[in-house]
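A reminder from the course coordinator: this example appears on the midterm review sheet, so study it carefully.

Given structure:
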């Protein structure tokens, strides 16, 4: 499907992106068609609305939407779009609390540089997700990792995450003491 035309008002509202528009169409290098649609929805309506076709697998769609949110958050940083970054953060937080923990960590592991850049807000979210007493994703975790092999990997990830939580607590405590 060819990209839809953007109203001239959008181009006038965002003149700093004039070089990304060609014949009133957004040409943003490196974005997929779905990601371009999200950016266009943001520029036109100030909303974050993915329009990815519904597929049989909810987990596949969740993973794709998380990848889209991380990529667009980074692009929003590069192109100075704080509103888009805010919407992307909400999508990332939603994924953090609804996806199986191992799946979420596996997806985020592909974006080490992004995690390092955004650790000031992402670290506490990940920490909270791991410490949730009754996360919404627990049933999904159980369903996703039913086989013995996956359960062993899942247990390892939870154990490692627990160690990271303790280290984060110690680090936060040490930082608080050094400020006194």
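Designed residues:
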């Amino acid at each position: 499907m060819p990209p839809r035309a953007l109203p001239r008002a959008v181009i006038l509202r965002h003149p700093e992106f004039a070089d990304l528009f060609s014949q009133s169409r957004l040409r943003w290098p490196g974005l997929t068609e779905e990601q371009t649609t999200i950016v266009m929805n943001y520029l036109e309506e100030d909303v974050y609305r993915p329009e990815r076709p519904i597929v049989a697998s909810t987990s596949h769609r969740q993973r794709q939407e998380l990848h889209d949110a991380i990529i667009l958050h980074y692009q929003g940083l590069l192109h100075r779009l704080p509103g888009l970054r805010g919407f992307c953060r909400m999508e990332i937080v939603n994924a953090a609390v609804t996806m199986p923990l191992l799946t979420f960590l596996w997806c985020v592991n592909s974006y080490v540089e992004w995690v390092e850049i955004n650790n000031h807000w992402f670290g506490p979210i990940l920490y909270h997700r791991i410490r949730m007493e009754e996360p919404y994703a627990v049933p999904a975790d159980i369903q996703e990792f039913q086989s013995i092999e996956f359960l062993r990997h899942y247990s390892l990830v939870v154990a490692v995450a627990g160690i990271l939580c303790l280290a984060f607590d110690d680090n936060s405590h040490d930082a608080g003491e050094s400020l006194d």
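The chain has a mean pLDDT of 74. The CA atoms of residues 107 and 175 lie 29 Å apart.
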